[in-house]
């Protein structure tokens, strides 16, 4: 079950939960309102045939898909690699991940520049909007397997912060001020 919470400011291991004291959770509804991050629940056992994923792909125009595994065994220079995923960045397109197995954390900035940590595991599909500052880390399980989707030819290029002059960033900030629920309707 996906959960999201505001992070503490501790610089200890990025793979820990980093809850505030006391913890401050945020509902998925508020997460969307505050950041534009969308969430879908899929069934990992039946997604290939139950039609939910194919409907979503069709509606949202996802024409590309692949699968990636991230673990100590699969990645050379694992420690370095997960540090690089954890560098704050944005993309010119949505980042779409459907977790098949394992778990991890997507951290996104809200409008007040606070980090919100989103804990994802099997069955969670998350859509991170273009232009939002974010980062990813594995958790202490050190393993995630996920599908990636894209509209058209995939572009995975990250732009590290600061990237405030980029068009996608300006568009995102505009939506942030306008309100996401409103922008989506
Ligand atoms: Fe990213």
Q: How would you portray this structure in words?
A:
It is built from five helices and ten strands, in the order βαβαβαβββββββαα. It starts with a strand and ends with a helix. The chain has one domain (3-172): Jelly Rolls, CATH 2.60.120. It is globular. It has helices at 28-35, 52-60, 78-85, 167-178, 180-184, and strands spanning 3-6, 38-41, 64-71, 89-90, 95-109, 115-121, 124-128, 134-138, 143-150, 159-160. The strands form two sheets. Strands 1, 2, 3, 5, 6, 7, 8 and 9 form an eight-stranded antiparallel sheet that branches. The chain is α+β, with helices and mostly antiparallel strands and 185 residues long. A hairpin with a 5-residue loop joins β5 and β6 (115-121). The protein binds fe (ii) ion. Fe (ii) ion is lined by residues 89, 91, 95, 134, 158. Fe (ii) ion binds at residues 89, 91, 95, 134, 158. GO terms for molecular function: acireductone dioxygenase (Ni2+-requiring) activity; acireductone dioxygenase [iron(II)-requiring] activity; iron ion binding; nickel cation binding. It is found in: Cell membrane; Cytoplasm; Nucleus. Its cofactor is Fe(2+); Ni(2+).
Enter the CATH topology name: Jelly Rolls
Specify Rg, calculated over alpha carbons: 16 Å
- Distinct ligands, ions and cofactors found in the model: fe (ii) ion
How many strands in all? 10
Largest sheet: 8 strands, antiparallel
Poorly predicted spans: none
Distance between the termini: 27 Å
Mind telling me which CATH architecture this is?
Answer: Sandwich
Order of SSEs: EHEHEHEEEEEEEHH
Mean pLDDT: 95
The figure for the number of domains is 1
